[in-house]
Write a structure and sequence with these properties.
This protein has helices at residues 27-42, 65-68, 73-92, 108-115, 142-150, 152-161, 167-172, 183-195, 199-209, 216-226, 230-241; strands at residues 3-8, 11-16, 48-53, 58-60, 97-101, 104-106, 118-121, 126-128, 165-166, 178-179. The protein is α/β, with parallel strands linked by helices. It has a six-stranded mixed sheet with strand order 1-2-3-5-7-10, sandwiched between helices. The chain binds coenzyme A.
Length: 250
Amino acid sequence: MSIDVARDGAIAVVTIDRQDALNALDVETLTELRDRLRELADDGEARAVVLTGAGEKAFVAGADIKYMSSLEPEQAKSWGALGHEAARLLEAMPKPTIAAVNGFALGGGCELALACDIRYASSRAKFGQPEINLGIVPGWGGTQRLARVCGIGVAKELIYTGRVIDAEEALRVGLVNAVADPVLDHALSVARELAAKSPVALALAKRLVNMAPGGLEREADEFGDLFASEDAKEGLAAFVDKRTPRFVGR
Ligand code: COA
C-alpha cells in the first residue's frame, strides 16, 4: 500500500509510503493519492486532513525522476495534470489540509506541501524546487504557489537556483508556518483544534482566503449569508452565554 489513510477521530492522516524511493511519486502512487484525496474531499466525517511521508528521511523527494526520464511531451502533460489534480484537491477541498513535512520535500513534494493550507516542518526537513538541475521546471503548481506563499523574489531565487533550504530558512522565508518536533504530533494537535471548530465557517474561510487578493466583494456577501447557519448562531450565542459552543456543521 503506497498511500495509507488512517483516522484519528475526525482527522484523516494521509501517509505517502514509498520509502525505497524516498516517497517519490510514480504514476501508481500519485494516482492513488489523487483518489484518496477525492474521497476525503467528499467525506463529511473527515474535518481536517494531515499529509505526511512515511519513514525518517522524506516527506516526498519529488516526482519519480526515473519515470520522467522517458516521457514524451504529451505524456508529460498528462503527468503534470495528475499532479495538478492532487494539489488542487489539497488546496480546494472544503476542509483544512496540513502538511507535516518530516524530511525531504523536494520538487513535487514541495509543491504538494505548498498546496496544503498550513505547513509544519520537522527541524531536519529540507525544501526545494530542484527541477532546474534536471533541465525542467516545477510542473505541479510550484511556480505559482511558491510565489504566492513566499513572494516572487524568493520563488524566483529558489526555482532558478534549485537550492535546497533547511527548516530554519523555510520558516524565515514563510514557506512553513512553524518548525516543531515531532512534526506529526504538532500537526495533529492543530488538526484536532480545527476539527472542533465550525466546519461551515472553516470551509467558507478557506474558500475566501483562496480568492485573495481579489475576494473582498465576495467576503462582504458571504459573511452575511453565513449568519443563516446553525453554527454561527451557536458560536455567537455561546460567547454571550459564557459557554463552550457545540458546532454541528450546518
Ligand atoms: N525519483 C526517483 N527516485 C528517487 C527520487 C526521485 N525524485 N529521489 C530519491 N530517489 C531514490 C534514489 O534513486 C535511490 O534509489 P536507489 O537506491 O534505487 O538508487 C533512493 O531513492 C534513495 O535516494 P538516495 O539518492 O540514495 O538518497 P540520498 O540520501 O543520498 O539523497 C536526495 C537524497 C533527496 C538528496 C536525493 O535522492 C535526490 O536528490 N533526489 C532527487 C530530488 C529531486 O530532484 N526531486 C525533484 C524531482 S522533479
